[in-house]
Amino acid sequence: MPLDHEAIIAGITPAPPDLARLETLVSLAEERDRRADTKLTIAQTEKTAATEALKRARNARADWIRSNPDPQMMLL
Fold it and tell me: Collapsing DSSP states into helix, strand and coil, what is residue 38?
């Protein structure tokens, strides 16, 4: 037996929020926010370490280039 339009709408319309549902939503949102803060802190620490490693690598490359001139340039 097919459902009428009102029955279908009633079945997909969410129930009005009550305090327990809203408390659950707040709790879940707070936990999500805490996890995001943790991930952000870890990512910022990794970014700082990566930037420092990049600086060290570039400096080492520049030092090596200064210490080891291209011998072909001396032929000119």
Answer: helix
Measured distance CA(13)–CA(70) in Å, rounded: 75
| pLDDT by 10-residue block (mean), the chain, 76 residues | 69 80 94 98 98 98 87 61
**What's the distance, CA 35 to chain centroid?**
11
Q: Which of 68, 49, 50 is nearest to 60 (CA)?
A: 68
User: What is the residue extent of each domain of the chain?
Assistant: 16-74
Q: Give the dihedral of Cα atoms 61, 66, 72, 74; nearest 10 deg.
A: 180
Please count the helices (runs of H) and the strands (runs of E) in the chain: 3, 0
CA neighbours closer than 13 Å in the CB half-sphere of residue 34: 6
